[in-house]
């Protein structure tokens, strides 16, 4: 029998994420951006730096656009990481998540530092950068199959390493086609490097933006179903400071 993850143990602490519902993805993005900006500003009032993890996906575009335009954030004191990257794509491929985040956000604000995953480097190299100091904020989404970053089911919710290479399942790869990132399934890489679930949820605050009808089932299962590696996003309920933003199409059943 497979070993239990920490989140599946009877005595594991669980929480009810704050659920915020909006009419559409644009309003969701503006509201999430306001909350994220407020969290950054509050933290920068008490410390010299904020360290953040960002997701690269079309579902995050409205939030990142609004966040880049939000006044009052001293981005020069923010260090940014991203949470996953394909293996085997050409260096200049526009589908690389690091390239997407540069276009959508990283090149639009004067960040103090940006640490992109180098798919040609060992995972341990990025892990050392990530764990050099605590992470304050993670901004992420939920995949159609319930994945967090590229942690497809079944995922280890108590993974002992912060960064690793993974094989992508077909549902995850199909989502990249449906999102318009690739023309056909055969173009989507089969392997990637990703932050693990514990690394994502090690942040002090988690903001999860999940618009769109294709995400409704995953959102419902994550918030209402059992917690376990069969649905990685269910691990959000093990975090004490998590806010989930949905629109009318993605709101849980």
From TrEMBL:
<dbReference type="InterPro" id="IPR004547">
    <property type="entry name" value="Glucosamine6P_isomerase"/>
</dbReference>
<dbReference type="InterPro" id="IPR006148">
    <property type="entry name" value="Glc/Gal-6P_isomerase"/>
</dbReference>
<dbReference type="InterPro" id="IPR037171">
    <property type="entry name" value="NagB/RpiA_transferase-like"/>
</dbReference>
<keyword id="KW-0119">Carbohydrate metabolism</keyword>
<protein>
    <submittedName>
        <fullName>Glucosamine-6-phosphate deaminase</fullName>
    </submittedName>
</protein>
<dbReference type="Pfam" id="PF01182">
    <property type="entry name" value="Glucosamine_iso"/>
</dbReference>
<feature type="domain" description="Glucosamine/galactosamine-6-phosphate isomerase">
    <location>
        <begin position="23"/>
        <end position="238"/>
    </location>
</feature>
């Amino acid at each position: 029998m497979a070993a239990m993850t920490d989140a599946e143990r009877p005595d594991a602490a669980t929480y009810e994420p704050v659920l915020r519902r909006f009419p559409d993805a644009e309003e969701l993005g503006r509201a999430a951006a306001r909350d994220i900006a407020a969290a950054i500003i509050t933290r920068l009032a008490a410390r010299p730096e904020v360290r953040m993890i960002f997701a690269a996906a079309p579902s995050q575009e409205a939030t990142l656009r609004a966040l880049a335009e939000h006044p009052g954030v001293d981005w020069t004191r923010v260090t940014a990481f991203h949470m996953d990257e394909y293996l085997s794509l050409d260096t200049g491929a526009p589908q690389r998540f690091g390239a997407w985040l540069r276009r959508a956000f990283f090149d639009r604000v004067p960040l103090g530092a940006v640490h992109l995953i180098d798919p040609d480097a060992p995972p341990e190299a990025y892990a050392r950068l990530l764990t050099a100091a605590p992470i304050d904020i993670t901004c992420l989404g939920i995949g159609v199959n319930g994945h967090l970053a590229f942690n497809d089911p079944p995922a280890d919710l108590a993974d002992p390493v912060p960064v690793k290479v993974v094989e992508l399942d077909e549902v995850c790869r199909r989502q990249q086609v449906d999102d318009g990132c690739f023309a056909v399934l055969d173009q989507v890489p089969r392997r990637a490097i990703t932050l693990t679930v514990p690394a994502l949820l090690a942040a002090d605050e988690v903001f999860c933006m999940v618009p769109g009808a294709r995400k409704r089932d995953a959102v419902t299962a994550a918030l209402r179903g059992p917690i376990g590696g069969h649905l990685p996003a269910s691990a959000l309920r093990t975090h004490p400071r998590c806010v989930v933003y949905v629109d009318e199409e993605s709101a849980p059943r």
